Amino acid sequence: MATPVSKTENMGAEIARLESELGRLRRERDEASRPCADVDLSCLKKDSGSAKLDLRRQKHLRRGMIPYLRDYNWRVILTGPVIYGTFIALVILDIAITLYMWICFPIYRIEKVKRSEYIVIDRHQLAYLNVLEKLNCAFCGYANGLFAYGLEIASRTERFWCPIKHAAAARGSHHRTEAFVDYSDGAAYRVLQRENAAATRAPSCNGGHCKGCGS
Q1: Cα angle at 18 between 144 and 113, to 5 degrees?
Q2: End-to-end CA, the chain
Q3: Whole-angstrom distance, CA of residue 16 vs CA of residue 159
Q4: pLDDT digits over 2-18, tens only?
Q5: Which tens digits make up the pLDDT trace of 64-96?
């Protein structure tokens, strides 16, 4: 008979699978409906007539740099260096969490996170954006994708080291929290802790999928 712990683990794994499938379907939908970008020659070749017309419409919507900047309060423009000043810190964070994952996850028997599934930079290809807007979109894609990538690494780490729900509700909790044990359920926690520990002594995961991966 399945224990409450194994049931919650199965529920968490199913939620993760469904979210991954939903993400894949959304990407396929977006790719199918994505208008041609100014550098997307393969898209232009598929339907040159409508694609070129759409490209002309996109370019018609592009605003020059000066009119674009005039739309904003001058103080907004001055915040630019503050925003882009975080870039070095983001790169350091990116390198740090990636190194941590590559070094520690194989030891913990945790499946690695695919960085390319979280950090997507493609909006700079849009013809209706000016140079600054393309730069902004590229930066936002990297920053937000990096945080999502980091959250996934952190959630798998938490599933391994501390799979316990908080006593108080926490906003923005990741989906694996649902499979965590209740705050005061020490017995259930000890079961998970021993399973995770036992997994580290087991033979290497087959393709990264094994009991205790927490993926």
Answers
A1: 45
A2: 23
A3: 13
A4: 555 556 556 666 766 77
A5: 989 999 999 999 999 999 999 999 999 999 999
Nearest to 38 by CA among 24, 16, 54, 26: 54
Q: For residues 190 and 98, is the Cβ–Cβ distance under 8 A?
A: no
Which segments of the chain are extended strands (E)? Answer: none
- Distance, in Å, from the CA atom of 124 to the CA atom of 130, rounded to the nearest integer, reads 9
Per-residue three-class SS string for 101-121: HHHHHHHHCCCCCCHHHCCCC
List 10's β-bridge partners, or say none.
Answer: none
Sequence-distant (6+) residues with CB within 8 A of 167 are 183
Asked if residues 53 and 43 have their Cβ atoms less than 8 Å apart, the reply is no
Global confidence as pTM: 0.73
Give the whole-angstrom CA distance, residue 79 versus residue 118.
26
In three state form, how does the secondary structure of 182-196 look?
Answer: CCCCHHHHHHHHHHH
Q: What is the rounded distance in angstroms from the CA atom of residue 139 to the CA atom of residue 87? A: 8
Cα–Cα distances in angstroms (integers) from residue 146 to residues 79, 126, 127, 158, in the given order: 21, 22, 25, 18
